[in-house]
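Board notes (copied after class):
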Amino acid sequence: MKKIYYLSLFLLISTSCLAQQGYRLYVEGEKQWAYRENELTDLIYDFVTKNFEAMTKSLIIADPSKEEPLKEAYAKMLQSIPIKDKKEQISLFFGLRKKGKGRILFMTFFEGNLRGKRKDAFFQLLLSDNTKEGIFRCDTILISDEKHRISYKEPSVKLKTRYQKEVMQEYEARALEKNAKQELEKYINTRKRWRRILLSE
């Protein structure tokens, strides 16, 4: 009887602690970004795990002075969550798009699941680049107002399969290279990092 009591108490405490840690985060990339792993996805991961120093040391930002604005952006994102119930899931939709004379890496946050069409993002962070091609280099950090936030449209199963296939074909094309197997294994293991991410203060 005592064992059952202590086990129940342990589970209750563990569940309470987990509930206080933060919001569960689901992450989805736009088109092929749903399956890519590189410096840009590293940057997204560092933001949602609050590793702002790593972001500023990346080749994409390479500017220590941007650490504080990134911290402030994360804090503002948390403050913008409409419902404060931490049982609620938060979804992040991200990607890279051309904008004007340059490009933007966008991180758009929604409450709940990403299904159908969503135009109700509660927060969006943009990292802008002033070039149209080549390696992305962050020039400016911006927080979008509600009017200019990117919407979400759920891709069909056919499109998801195509995007995944396109990314895997890149690895297949390098199958005869010396480190091809290790690179594929690294990719598969890196994909696991997106599970069980919590947004917290």
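Comment from the instructor: Residues 2-21 form the longest helix (20 residues). The first strand starts at residue 23 and ends at 29.
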